[in-house]
């Protein structure tokens, strides 16, 4: 089908025996159009494969009907991207909004893709992750009055929509689980120190350590973004030392697999010599090593919550009512 052969409002109007204005309002679920008429028009639209012309919509309304999901390419490991996209898509399914995914490299300025979307007016709302305590993207979008929602919180005095995982409680609970297994020399493999949830996770870990009477340390020179082979080698070296930890909290599934590989390369047995506790977004970790202690972080839920928040923000909702942790 050629571009000029695409079904239009006139196509649907002809097939339905209605006026173009009536069809347009029916597709938007306008209450002044009878429900049976709306259903008939929407059925015809689906059958002929009608899609609104975004350029025309933008000219008429100033809107793109697009939500942009800005993701770091590092996030693809262990399915973060696919799960978030699935969740966002679920929330947008019955709306006029479409999803575009804008990737960027972790070596680039994370503000660059956000600034490009705003300067080109290519989306009505933006979702992004890997927030920092003082996040330039949050400040920029707030100043430019662009609706957005973040996967993760900030600490900069700006109230904005977000959905976050309770990393403080996760880390504290994992310390308790390790201590239940008689582990006393604990260590944590953290997120990168510039990210907001680094502080949440580290505070939870050390509060748990103090409460339990165990000892705790941050694994030096590595974090969950460290290349996996480098991480494996570094963990192996740590676990060959006489003062090695006997319990480790990991902040991601991929880093957990590399950590376990390093432990086993050092000649130690998981569940016997050392225990590892981790978050997971899929069921792969118990298949990989049943001895692991795991807690689920539901990225699909995060995607749904973030999409719902940014849609509500577009509709004018108070950002303070669009915040969730779970």
* Top-tier CATH class of the largest domain: Alpha Beta
Label the structural class: alpha/beta
CATH fold name of the largest domain: Rossmann fold
Number of domain modules: 3
Walk me through what this model shows:
- With 326 residues, the chain is an alpha/beta fold.
- It has helices at residues 9-16, 20-27, 35-48, 54-61, 80-92, 111-119, 136-143, 167-180, 196-212, 228-239, 253-265, 284-288, 299-314; strands at residues 66-72, 98-104, 125-128, 148-151, 162-164, 185-189, 215-218, 247-250, 275-280, 293-296, 323-325.
- The chain has a six-stranded parallel β-sheet with strand order 2-1-3-4-5-11, with helices on both faces.
- Strand 9 (275-280), helix 12 and strand 10 form a beta-alpha-beta unit.
- The protein is elongated and about 80 Å long.
- The two termini are 46 Å apart.
- Keywords: DNA-binding, Transcription, Transcription regulation.
Summed up:
This protein has 326 residues and is α/β, with parallel strands linked by helices.
SSE topology:
Elements: H1 9-16, H2 20-27, H3 35-48, H4 54-61, E1 66-72, H5 80-92, E2 98-104, H6 111-119, E3 125-128, H7 136-143, E4 148-151, E5 162-164, H8 167-180, E6 185-189, H9 196-212, E7 215-218, H10 228-239, E8 247-250, H11 253-265, E9 275-280, H12 284-288, E10 293-296, H13 299-314, E11 323-325
Helix pairs in contact: 1-2, 1-3, 2-3, 5-13, 6-7, 8-9, 10-11
Domain HTH lacI-type: 7-61
Keywords: DNA-binding, Transcription, Transcription regulation
Protein name: LacI family DNA-binding transcriptional regulator
Which key terms come to mind for this protein?
326 residues; Rossmann fold; 434 Repressor (Amino-terminal Domain); 6-stranded parallel beta sheet; 5-stranded parallel beta sheet; alpha/beta; single chain
């Amino acid at each position: 089908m050629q571009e000029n052969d695409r079904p239009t409002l006139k196509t649907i109007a002809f097939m339905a025996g209605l006026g173009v204005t009536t069809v347009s309002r029916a597709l938007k679920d306008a209450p002044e159009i009878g429900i049976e008429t709306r259903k008939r028009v929407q059925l015809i639209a689906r059958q002929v494969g009608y899609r609104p012309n975004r350029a025309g919509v933008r000219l008429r309304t100033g809107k793109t009907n697009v939500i942009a999901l800005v993701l770091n390419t590092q996030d693809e490991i262990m399915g973060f991207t696919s799960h978030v996209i699935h969740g966002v898509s679920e929330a947008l399914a019955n709306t006029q909004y479409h999803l575009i995914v804008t990737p960027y490299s972790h070596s680039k300025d994370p503000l660059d893709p956000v600034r490009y979307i705003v300067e080109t007016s290519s989306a009505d709302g933006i979702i992004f992750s890997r927030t920092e305590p003082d996040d330039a993207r949050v400040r920029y979008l707030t100043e430019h009055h662009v609706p957005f929602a973040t996967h993760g919180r900030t600490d900069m005095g700006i109230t904005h929509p977000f959905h976050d995982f309770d990393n403080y409680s996760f880390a504290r609970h994992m310390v308790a689980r390790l201590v239940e297994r008689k582990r006393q020399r604990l260590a944590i493999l953290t997120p990168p120190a510039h990210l907001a949830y680094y502080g949440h996770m580290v505070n939870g870990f050390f509060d748990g350590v103090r409460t339990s009477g165990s000892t705790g340390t941050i694994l030096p020179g590595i974090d969950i973004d460290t290349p996996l082979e480098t991480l494996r080698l570094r963990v192996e070296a740590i676990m060959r030392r006489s003062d090695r930890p006997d319990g480790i909290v990991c902040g991601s599934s991929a880093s957990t697999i590399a950590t376990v590989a390093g432990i086993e390369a050092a000649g130690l047995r998981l569940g016997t010599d050392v225990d590892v506790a981790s978050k997971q977004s899929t069921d792969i970790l118990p298949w990989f090593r049943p001895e692991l202690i795991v807690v689920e972080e539901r990225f699909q839920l995060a995607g749904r919550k973030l999409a719902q928040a940014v849609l509500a923000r577009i509709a004018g909702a108070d950002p303070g009512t669009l915040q969730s942790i779970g």
